[in-house]
Design a protein that fits this description.
Chain lengths: ~325, ~270
């Protein structure tokens, strides 16, 4: 048994270039044993490229990583044996039953028949698909498919589970459900999890989060520490004249504000509740030209952290050819 | 080392089994893919047959002549389709999961060749069942030979399909493949007309077309006993052994780069 203090994942200077584009630019980080580690960033930030390299699907242009003690460059087979992977896109055979999908996985990972029988029972139980196991996957709902994929990813007792956007395209209720399983999994089986997501609220479930933008890690900490970067409360203010409001905030109230992504002003301030009345009267000034249209006060979220660190909101980038295939697939799926 | 070989063989078997199981479960796909060959055979062949009758001096029926070509067609189209489907399967299907499993890519490629060929062979056999309806009598040794020849064609064509699909990332090029690879190969193979006495350009193209060497032996074996020998001698292109050797050569030429390209990690 290797020591518990050993990191599950160690990444050093990992880089991947596609022609002129540097998708992942010399990143370093560690993931501890049993940790749920989140990789947060917009589409095209380098999340999937990173996960593909860590799973030995893509060769790094430079740098290296060690997963469960195995180097991705020199021991890809050993890495593959010790990881499980839940993909962003579906990877089940829809013509086969749930159990058959698991059985093919067991064959590829060289499990014995007895190991498979026992393990399949356990994982199916865990994701509550025991009753449905012998139905054809085509009849499964989106959430059930995801659960089966999680069960399959766990079948061969991986030490590290990679999840690439595990809840993409699922409804909020199903997403919560999936998270319940993942947390339960960590508690009962002690599996290290590395996940990518662009859902901010989900990232809160992680022990630590790396925020990635343009192929670089811009910040890495616990969700609470990251949110502490924002300092106090977040006020979102809409006014009839944002430029004037910004000026008055700075000169009269001595407060720094910045433009938010949707035509509002964002103010980070301690004790925001007490600041609101001061702000409203201060902004109005003598002339009544400037009107405050709305004010909202909230605790900082990871979205605020992201905007603060990168200057923009996480939003969908332009669809590439793979996204087109993805969309076609969804349409085809709906028709069935 | 021995463990790795055993593990890879198991992986090939797994990928093969999945393709076969999938196919056996999809009745509508079986029927749909049977439709095209039967349409050609009975509508196209049946329509042309009376018009072509005087040409053979009353000795041959055009449908009978065409039948081996239709066997090849069923095998050819199924092979290439199932091979090219790896492009989709690799991004949005089971193959994606296979690609991260601890099995060698060589095993994955060979498993796909085995699976695609088996499914294609099965389609060919389904068409073969219609032989008695066309007045083609097949003895047991002929049946065995035909199955062997169809399997050879299936392996060669599946390898070609995987060679085409190995580095392809999207399905966008698929129609191009259909129009510029599959249909020309099929039309220039002698499936519909004898290649004896065609214009020079066509003769040359058909000689570098692998499907030609798949149709010719199928025809020789299938029609032996149904057509008069002097007519058989007229439409025979190569000795049986030559056809088989050329096919094996094509198989090697397609399979090797297919496996190499498929195995390369980005």
């Amino acid at each position: 048994m290797e020591g518990r203090q050993m990191n599950a994942i160690e990444v050093r200077g990992l880089t991947r270039r596609f022609g002129d584009l540097t998708a992942v630019d010399g990143i370093d980080f560690e993931v501890r044993q049993d940790e749920i580690f989140g990789f947060l960033g917009p589409n095209g930030a380098g999340k999937t490229t990173t996960i593909s390299m860590l799973c030995t699907l893509l060769k790094p242009s430079a740098g290296q990583a060690v997963i469960a003690g195995h180097n991705i460059n020199t021991q890809p087979s050993a890495v593959r044996r010790s990881i499980g992977l839940i993909f962003q896109d579906p990877s089940l055979d829809e013509q086969l039953t749930g159990r058959e999908n698991l059985r093919f996985h067991a064959m590829l990972y060289d499990l014995t028949r007895a190991e498979f029988e026992q393990r399949a029972r356990e994982v199916l139980e865990m994701v509550e698909l025991t009753e449905k196991a012998d139905d054809i996957v085509r009849t499964y709902s989106g959430g059930m498919r995801r659960r089966l994929e999680i069960a399959r990813g766990l079948l061969h007792h991986p030490r590290v589970l990679f999840l690439d956007e595990p809840t993409l395209g699922l409804d909020p209720q199903t997403r919560r459900h999936i998270w319940d399983y993942l947390r339960q999994l960590r508690e009962e089986q002690g599996v290290t999890m590395f996940m990518t997501t662009h859902y901010m609220d989900e990232a809160e479930n992680c022990d630590r989060i790396a925020i990635i933008d343009h192929g670089k890690i811009v910040s890495l900490d616990t969700p609470d520490e990251l949110k502490a970067l924002v300092g106090g409360d977040v006020l979102t203010v809409r006014t009839s004249d944002n430029a004037l409001a910004l000026e008055r905030l700075q000169s009269d109230l001595d407060v720094n504000a910045r433009h938010g992504p949707d035509g509002q002003l964002i103010i980070e301030i301690a004790d925001g509740d007490q600041f609101i009345p001061r702000m409203v009267s201060g902004l109005a000034g003598e002339s009544q030209k400037l009107r405050v249209q709305s004010v909202s006060l909230r605790r900082p979220t990871l979205e605020d952290v992201f905007i603060k660190l990168t200057g923009r909101a996480i939003r969908e980038e332009e669809a590439d050819s793979k996204d087109h295939m993805r969309i076609r697939r969804r349409i085809a799926g709906r028709r069935r | 080392m021995r463990d790795r070989v055993v593990h890879d063989l198991k992986a090939i078997y797994t990928i093969w089994l999945r393709d076969v199981l999938r196919f056996s479960r999809d009745r509508s796909r079986i029927l749909a893919s049977l439709g095209q060959p039967l349409l050609f055979l009975f509508v196209f062949g049946g329509g042309l047959s009376p018009a072509m009758a005087p040409l053979g001096g009353g000795h041959i029926d055009f449908i009978q002549f065409m039948f081996p070509g239709i066997l090849a067609m069923a095998v050819l189209f199924t092979s290439i389709f199932s091979a090219v489907s790896i492009v989709w399967d690799r991004e949005f299907g089971f193959l994606k999961e296979v690609m991260v499993a601890p099995v060698s890519r060589v095993a994955v490629a060979l498993g796909k060749v085995a699976g695609g060929s088996t499914v294609a062979l099965f389609q060919g056999v389904l068409v073969m069942v219609f032989a008695p309806l066309l007045g083609i009598k097949l003895a047991l040794d002929q049946l065995v030979m035909l199955i062997g020849l169809m399997l050879l064609l299936a392996v060669v064509m599946t390898s070609l399909g995987i060679l085409i699909a190995a580095r392809q990332k999207t399905m966008e090029g698929f129609h191009t493949i259909m129009n510029f690879v599959m249909l020309p190969m099929f039309f220039l193979s002698g499936a519909f007309f004898p290649l004896t006495g065609v214009p020079l350009w066509m003769d040359l193209l058909s000689k570098v077309n692998p499907v030609t060497y798949g149709v010719d032996p199928l025809r020789q074996v299938a029609l032996q006993g149904s057509l008069p020998e002097q007519f058989m001698a007229l439409i025979r292109l190569n000795p049986l052994a030559t056809d088989i050797v050329v096919m094996l050569g094509f198989g090697l030429v397609f399979l090797t780069p297919a496996v190499v390209l498929f195995s390369r990690r980005d």
